[in-house]
Amino acid sequence: MTDQIFHDSDADRTFRAKRFSGRFFIYGILILWAIVALFPIYWTITTSFKMAPDVMKGNIIPYWDYTPKWLGWRSLGLSPDTIGNESTVRAEFLKRFWNSAIIAVSASVLAVGLGSCAAYGLSRFNYKFGFMRNSDISFFFLSQLILPPVVLALPFLVLYKALGMLDTRVGLILLYALTVLPIVIWIMRDQFGSIPSELEEAALVDGLSIWGAFLTIILPIALPGMVAAFILSLVLTWNEYFFAALLTSSHAKTLPVMVASQTGSQGISWWSMAALSFAAILPLVIIGIALERYIIKGMAAGAVK
Amino acid sequence: MNTEGDLLHVVTADNISDQRRRFGQSIVWGSAALMLFVAALQTADQNGLVGIGFETWRPTLYAYILWAICLCAGQVIARGEHGKRTLFVLPATLFVVSMVVFPLLFGLVIAFSDWNLASPNGRQFNGWENVRQMWTDPFYWNAMRNMVWYSLAIIVEYAIAFGLALLLNAQIKGRKFFRVAFLLPLMLSPVAVSWMIGKSMLENRFGPIARMLREMGVDNPSFFSSPEIARLMIMLMDAWTYIPFMMIMILAGLQAIPKELHEAAEVDGASAWTRFWEVTFPLMLPVSITAILIRIIFKLKLADIIINVTSGGPGGATDSVTSFIFREYRDRSNVGYGTMLAMFYLVVIVIAMTILIKAADRWMRPRY
C-alpha cells in the first residue's frame, strides 16, 4: 500500500458532507410523507383483522402485539370459513359492488365515447352553431366543470321522479357521464391536438371517409390518452357519493352509499367497518398501483401546454 | 389551436339529390313534431284535460331521444360529408344541453316555489319568499363563510404539493415507489376516507392519533367538538386526498422545464434558493395557476367527508354549502328552498371564478 497521492481538498469534503445531509433530508421528508399517505390504508387493513380488545389497546403491528383474526371479514361473509356459506351481508355487499362497477364502467365508457368524438371534432374542424364558434363550444363543454353537483341534484331529483328514473342505474350512469365529460374532453383535446393532421389527409386521399380515418387511424394513436381519461373517469365515478346518496334508495345503491350507511350503525365494531372500507377501496388501490402511469399522464395532460 | 379554416378539407364530392335532402329534413322536423305532440299530450293529461293516465313522463323522454337520433341522422343524410363532421360534436352537445341546460332552466322554476316532495300539495309558486328566507338564514351564510376558509386552505395545500413535487423531481432512488405511494390517497373514495380517518383514526378514545397525542401529554384530545379544530380536521382530510392531485400537475410542469435553464443559472453562480425563486417558480406560474383553479373548482364541491364525519357539526361550524343543502333537503325535503340556495351558490361561484380567471390572466400577462 502506497500513500494516496491525490486527496480531496477540504472544500470538497464539506461539499460532500453537505450533499449527504441534503440527501438525508430529502429522503427523510419523502419517507415521512409516504407514511402519512399510506398509514390510513395500513391502519384499515390491520384493523379489519383485529378483535375488540386489540382495538381498545391500540395494537398496531400484527403478529407482534396481536394475533390477526378473521373477525371483520367473517361479518362480511368473506373470511375463509364463511366464504362457502350463505351470507346476506355478502350478498348485499356484492350487489352494491356490482352496481358500482356497472355504473362506473358504463358512465366512463359513455363519457370517453362522447368526449373523444367531440374533442376530435373540435381539434380538426370549424363549427358554427348559431353564434357559437369552436372556442365557444370548447368553453361551453369545459365550463361544466365549474358547475357544482348540488345545483343539478335537486332538479334531477324532481325530473327523475317524474320520469320514473329514481333509483335506476341508467339515471346515475347519465349523470356521472355528465360530470366527467369535461375532464375527458380536456384530456382528449390535448391528445388529438398533438397528432398531425397529415395522417388523416393521407387517409382521406386514399379514399377513407372521415369517420373511417378517425376510427382506424387516429383512435389507435390516441389510445393511451383515452385509457388515461377512462381511468380518471373510473376513479371519479367509483368514488362518487353525493348523487348516489340523493338519487338511489335500494335497487341502484352504490358501494359508497353502503359504506356511509354502515358508519353510523356499527359503533365500536371497527373490524367490520374496516373490512367493508377496505373492500370498497381495494379495486382502486389496485388500479392506482397498476395503472399509475396512465393516471399521471391524464392529470398532466391539462397542466402542460 | 387554429381557428382559421378547417384543418382537413372535404375531398369527397358528394352529390346529394334533392330527394335525399328533403328526406333528411323531413325526419328531423317530423320527429320534432312528434316530440312536441307527445309533450303537449302529456301536459294536457297532467292538467286533466284528457284522460289517458300516463304514469310517468317517459313517453316524452323517448320522443326526445328519437328526435335526437333523427337530428344526428338527418345531418348526415341531408348534408353529406359536412354532416358527418357535425356528427363528431353533435351527440356530446345534445347530451350536455339536455342534461345541464334543461335541468338548470327547470331548476330556476323550482327555485321560486315552495315544493315539499313529501306533501301532497305539489309545487306552489311563492315568488321571492325563498330569497327572503335565504337572506336571513344564518346557517347558509355560515356555510358560505366556511367555504371561504376551506378555499383559503388551498394555499397551504399548494405549498405542500409544490414541495413534494420538487422532491419527486430531484435525483432520488425509488421514485416509482414514492410516486405510487403519494398518489394512492387520491384513489380512495371520500366516504371510505371519512371512516378510515375521520371516524376511526381520529376517534377520541381508541384512535391512534388520539393515543399518540395522549402520550405526548395532551389531556383530552377531541377532534370534532370545538368548531375551529373540527374545521381544521375537515381541511386536513380533504387536503390529504387532494394534495396528490396538485402534486402531479406541478410535477408534470417541473418535468417540462428544460434542464439547460438550471444549468445556466448554476454556472452563473445562483444558489439553490435563488434558482428556485428566479427560475423554477416563475416558469411554473402558468401550471400553478391552472392547478390552483382546478383545485378550487374541486374544493367548491366538497361535501362527502363533511356529510359522513361531522354532518355539519358542531353547530354548523364545518358545513360546506353542498353539505348544508344536502341536510336541508334530507331534513325538510323542501326542494324549492334547497334549489334556490344552490342557484345562488352557482351565481356566486361563476362571478368569483370569472374574477379569479381574469385576475390571473392580467397578473401573468406582463411577465411574458
Question: How does this model look, in words?
Answer:
- The complex is a heterodimer of chains A (305) and B (368).
- Chain A starts with 9 loop residues before the first helix and ends with a helix.
- Helix content of chain A is 73%, strand content 0%.
- Chain A has two domains: 10-76, no CATH class; 88-303, MetI-like (MetI-like fold, Orthogonal Bundle), CATH 1.10.3720.10.
- The longest helix of chain A has 38 residues, at 10-47.
- Chain A has 305 residues and is mainly α.
- Chain A has helices at residues 10-47, 52-57, 71-76, 88-124, 134-142, 149-163, 169-193, 198-205, 210-239, 242-247, 255-265, 270-290, 292-303.
- Chain B is mainly α and 368 residues long.
- In chain B, 73% of the residues lie in helices and 1% in strands.
- Chain B is flat, with a radius of gyration of 28 Å.
Short structural summary:
Chain A is mainly alpha-helical and 305 residues long.
* Reported CATH architecture of the largest domain in chain B: Orthogonal Bundle
Which CATH class of the largest domain in chain B is shown?
A: Mainly Alpha
Which strand-content bin applies to the residues of chain A?
under 5%
Strand content of chain B: under 5%
Q: Give average pLDDT of chain A, whole number.
A: 84
> What Rg of chain A, in angstroms, do the CA atoms define?
26 Å
CATH topological fold name of the largest domain in chain B? MetI-like fold
Give the CATH architecture of the largest domain in chain A: Orthogonal Bundle
Overall form of chain A: flat
Q: Low-confidence spans of chain A: pLDDT under 50, at least 5 residues? A: none
